[in-house]
Amino acid sequence: MQHVAITGSNRGIGLEVVRQLASRPETEIYAMCRKPDVAAELRALSKDSNGRVHLIALEVTDDASIRAAAAAVGTKTDRIDLLINNAAINPPGKTQTLETITSAEMLHVLHVNTVAPLLVVQAFTELLKKGSLPKVVNLSSEMGSLDDRDYGGYYGYCTSKAALNMVTRGLAADLAGYGIVTISLDPGWVQTEMGGDGADLTPEDSVRGILRVVDSLTRKDNGTYLRWNGRTLAW
Ligand code: NDP
Predict the structure, then answer these.
(1) How far is the CA of 88 from the centre of ligand 1 (A)?
(2) Residue 157 falls in the annotated catalytic set
């Protein structure tokens, strides 16, 4: 049995990860989201899963909620083999330009996209230590690549994902001794509420790629920055 925990699982890429993993009989999924009571699609998946998709409440900007979610998962399993930090925000571009960006906007995006993933790993570390080839996957973005940054704007989102990549590198060093593999992963440009209808990839294709990459991770991948198709991204 593989035990998987994921944040932001009620829609978009997170929901599709749960859908594809739920089709694997040997998987137990701890699907975390802000409002499990109204997460209709996730609830339907859970209902059809023979009790293998567990819904857990998690607001990632609330430290107590993070600790409560980890504790709730800990009542159902003594180990996590895969933790996916998926929840994130990318506010409208017009609020993230040089002219419009505010400290409140910057700090909010950094809280959701950078600080929260670190604190989620902190709360799940004991469960991860008991996992089998345990993995932490931080959903980053090509927009977090310094190398690729030849355009302006998106100060909150780009900065938060570059900083998340730094969190990945720190975790990779801190957790390597426990055999935990940590990576940053770019899902591609995906047709979700965040990616928009014009994006390149369907959630199905992106998540098929993501799971192929995640399944194939070994210790030598620790601390890397990969694309959904397995290629390496420049930091
Ligand atoms: P969506 O906007 O479709 O979904 C975002 C998810 O994050 C939702 O489940 C949302 O929950 C959750 N979330 C947001 N804020 C919080 C919070 N404070 N607490 C808990 N959950 C929260 O995004 P995608 O599915 O497209 O993106 C998934 C990941 O992939 C993100 O990390 C994103 O940055 C990354 N990515 C996406 C790309 C794309 O093209 N789509 C491109 C590159 C990277 P709620 O419904 O409650 O708001």
Answers:
(1) 4
(2) yes
